[in-house]
TrEMBL record:
Species, as recorded: Streptomyces camelliae
Protein name, per record: Acyl-CoA carboxylase subunit beta
Cross-referenced Pfam families: Carboxyl_trans (PF01039)
Domain CoA carboxyltransferase N-terminal: 1-257
Record region (Disordered): 1-31
Gene3D superfamilies membership: 2-enoyl-CoA Hydratase, Chain A, domain 1
Domain CoA carboxyltransferase C-terminal residue range list: 261-496
Top-level taxonomic group: Bacteria
Lineage summary: Bacteria, Bacillati, Actinomycetota, Actinomycetes, Kitasatosporales
Amino acid sequence: MRSGVEELASLRREIAEGPDPAATQRQRDKGKLTARERIELLLDPGSFQEVEQLRRHRATGFGLEAKKPHTDGVITGWGTVEGRTVFVYAHDFRIFGGALGEAHAEKIHKIMDMAIAAGAPLVSLNDGAGARIQEGVTALAGYGGIFQRNTKASGVIPQISVMLGPCAGGAAYSPALTDFVFMVRETSQMFITGPDVVKAVTGEEISQNGLGGADVHAETSGVCHFAYDDEETCLAEVRYLLSLLPQNNRERPPATAPDDPADRRCEELLDLVPADGNRPYDMRAVIESLVDDGDFLEIHERWAGNVIVALARLDGQTVGIVANQPQSLAGVLDINASEKAARFVQMCDAFNIPLVTLLDVPGFLPGVDQEHGGIIRHGAKLLYAYCNATVPRIQLILRKAYGGAYIVMDSRSVGADLSYAWPTNEIAVMGAEGAANVIFRRQIAGADDPEAMRARMVKEYKAELMHPYYAAERGLVDDVIDPAETREVLIRSLQMLRTKHAELPSRKHGNPPQ
């Protein structure tokens, strides 16, 4: 028995070191960590329990029968992050370039099934060259099994994809099915067809990073939620994100003991937000003032910057924040902003995270490109997401709230539990100038001094329909509040809504706009 144990320990040491020191050095030369080093950074020290470490493939042909390394190029198992169970699989690029074969896929399938059964988050550390060509269709079928499980787990457990190397072809669809995608600049790329194929088909020449690097997906495509300069920072942020999320859809997010007083006044908000609706300001500063210790995790920070989506804490409880950003396109809603906010609202609703929506929106972005690009159906995605959400929902109107964008951004009429407004709020079909030009166009055109008449009609319209208490008088806003008291009002309201219970009609699933 003792000799057997010694042999097992020696074998485990050999597997942990990897198949070839030269392969490890090549990994380091690219500025990349090994799969095991990444797992150590992600999980609490000493908590990782590996599954099927001794697994080998059984494929033959093309020289595979002579090369059967343990793990088959993927490390699977579970551990803890801040004491809570997390499942993980990590491609080992040193073995077959991290390419997926039958045994490799079966290991991933098993750990995904375990994560779903245990009700715990799943983190994939992706660094692979796609399907193992030597194994043919069985490798492709392995990807199909991963996609099926990604879909089964969607909205049940948090799924996080961390891109730490190449991810090409069909392999890119698994991260796209998960809740969050992290990427590292220079070392990670995602694309369906690589630069060589693009050049052969279209004649365009482009580098791997130019086609599918972290910055491209963080700024242009929106595929990537977070992009970082190094793996250490990236994995630390994954840990932070996990601390804000529940284990599964049957639990609430973990609460912390706050140091920031719930009744703290936010006097800075009185000067931060200009009363003039045409003057921009940084909505991030508003969020920072309201949340615990000014700390929040912005998602999709560099894509569709005219809307902000973020996770934060109020009185120690996780909340999701959706906010217009007046510094970018005046905070209008367009195609990308609608997509971004809709997906975030759905994620929060799936994982029992209350929603706070901060409004300062002049409407939807006009233009031929927007209309032809389908702003109607894309805007409807955000409307659908809010209408379908059953978590506590609070709307706060800071300044402008015009037209359909006001309705879509979680108004009382689409199911917000509470709606608050600051004394600077303007809720209307459109701005006063535009409304006066439509309603009083004949009087303005026939006046001796059209500009003076226009100014008088604008003032009249504002006085009648856009004063700060108009919506409150009609029950569409629950209260007009002092901006300095916003944090306390939000926290007290969320405490009351914590036991909210709402049910949707019985159905297999909805048919949201696409």
